[in-house]
Amino acid sequence: MPTDTHYVLVTGVHGLVGTALKPFLERQGHRVLGLKLRYQNTLSEVHAFLERYGPFTAVVHLCGEPVMQNWGPRALERVRESRIGTTQVLVRALSRQGPFVPKVFIQASGIGIYGTHPRGCAAPLTEGDPPNGIPGFLSTLAKDWETAAAPLLMSGVRVANLRLAPILSPNGGMLRSLLLLLKIGIYPKIGTGQQAFPWISLNDLLALIARTLVDSRFNGPINAVAPQQLSYKGFTDALRNYFPRRLPIWVPRFVFDWIYGQGFTDEMIFSNTSAFPKKALDNGFVFTHPTINQALEDFFG
Predict the structure, then answer these.
(1) Hey, what domains does the chain have and what are their CATH numbers?
(2) Dihedral-angle region of residue 190 (phi above 0 means left; psi in -120 to 50 means alpha; beta otherwise)
(3) Of 156, 191, 210, 244, which is the most buried if we count CB atoms within 10 A?
(4) Interval 175-187: pLDDT, tens
């Protein structure tokens, strides 16, 4: 496996992934600098930053306002602009670097690009499958997000779009929110529990980003998802092994509709999309947590 080291620019450095990524990459010998990038930043501001602190040989672009909020029109616009707007400005600024453009540009995307599948997928979707589910906000967002990075290809930059599944970590994200309920003695049952629950551990995501930095075979769309195909019930059943004697509480759909909006419920809770990390596995990436039991044992064992 290649062992190149990079001078890496990381955006979204204060989020769940970015906070852990910086020290993770530094332990592997990379030099890392964080940039707090917002969609209000102008091209001249970003260009001035690159001129002052660059040139960078790699960029990991993780900017994006959390999608776990009420999907009102203003919130959706912020979610979109924090991804598309920042990418467009960053790509334009990097393209101005001439011979000093980065070798690789790694960008977060999402498995939401495949659309929703209320009846489930005939087989787990791989990077070669078209996004043929029911389109929605997340699928359009992810397509436009990936498209916004494409101009860098014209400058010879290797572009990798990590199509993220929900990230599991006891330090943040949905698992941390669920732990709050478990600690007071309840765990939520949602729907039938048979809906697909794609996921990836934070540790595996960090390792996948690190591998993508140095391995030219990792380019284009990459499903950042654990190999195990899991239902929500399978996830909560595994979790109950570490939190026994919790009271199951059924949470009806209208609760999510009321708190987050119907679009969120359709696309985040009941999307029923199954995805498989074919490109990562085909190129020799080894998951530390290929199954949910292995992940939870590391978290709580």
Answers:
(1) 7-300 (3.40.50.720)
(2) beta
(3) 210
(4) 888 888 887 888 7
